[in-house]
Amino acid sequence: MVSVAMNTVSSAAVPTAPLSSPETQYTLEGYTLDPAPKWTTGAIKGYAPGECIPFRLTINTPVPEMVNLEYDNLREGIVGLEQLESIAATGAEISVGSPYFFQNQGGTDLWHVQVTLTDVTDPAVLTWCGRLGPQADQYPGASLQMRGYGIGDRTLSIPISGIVTPTATPTHTPTSTPTSTPTQTPTSTPTQTPTSTPTNTPTSTPTQTPTGTPIQTPTVTLTPTATSTPTPTPVPPTPTPMPLTPTPVPAAATPTVFAEILGLERMPVTGPVTPPPGVPSLLAGMSLLLIASGGLLRWFDGRG
């Protein structure tokens, strides 16, 4: 994994601590958090993966120097120290080169950053921080190493057991309570349903079928005609020498029907029947009526 160095001449913000004694020309220290925060030349503990560990190199000589900063970068696919950042100095001018792969030593990729110091005063302090990889707590081996070459090969140890597992701190994100905006519910406008206007269906007026009015046909009542029974004319007896036997004469028929029609009184007929006045005319009219009725019946039969 390629590391990136920060090229800068500004001072890094590092914790304040007394510098090394004037007798020591080069002192390499790291800032530990455990058991107590301080600068130390021993083991550095208390940092979590992804955090940056402060380092410093104190130089007590005024001669120009070139320092190689070396760090354990990669082993078995896990990054230990990812890169060096915020390289700066006080009491000197510096020039920082790009990081580069130095060598693989015992399965570990070692990277270097070369720093050149000029115009060094007494003392000069070089500061930087080493960024732990995101899985540095799982790095194979006992520790990570931070070294300085050209200054007497100084080394600092970062025990893997001293890298703490980060505890996720829940960040309180204010939850915005949505203000319920009343949704205007559209009022449905009733659609006027057209009322069907009943169509006047013409009522069929029944056609009056002329009913044939029956013509009263005069009923001809046949009036029995009274038959006059001639009364035998008495024949003078021929003198016969034998006794005369009286011939019974039947009684004349009594014209009861005719008499009832005419409203006449029943009376025995003892002689020739003489019709009352007006009867012959009535009989003649009735005969004509009978003849007319017969013709009328034949006319109706012909129409039928």
Distance between the termini: 133 Å
CATH topology of the domain at 26-162: Immunoglobulin-like
Order of helices and strands: EEEEEEEEEEEEHH
- CATH class group of the domain at 26-162: Mainly Beta
- On the 0-100 scale, what is the average pLDDT? 72
Which overall shape is indicated by the principal axes computed on the Cα atoms? Answer: rod-shaped
Estimated share of beta-strand residues? 25-35%
* CATH homologous superfamily descriptor of the domain at 26-162: ntegrin, alpha v. Chain A, domain 4
| Number of strand elements | 12
What does the radius of gyration come to?
82 Å
Main β-sheet, in a few words?
Answer: 7 strands, antiparallel
SSE-based structural type:
mainly beta
CATH architecture label name of the domain at 26-162: Sandwich
Give the low-confidence spans: 1-23, 203-207, 209-215, 217-230, 249-259
Helical region count?
A: 2
Helix % is: 10-25%
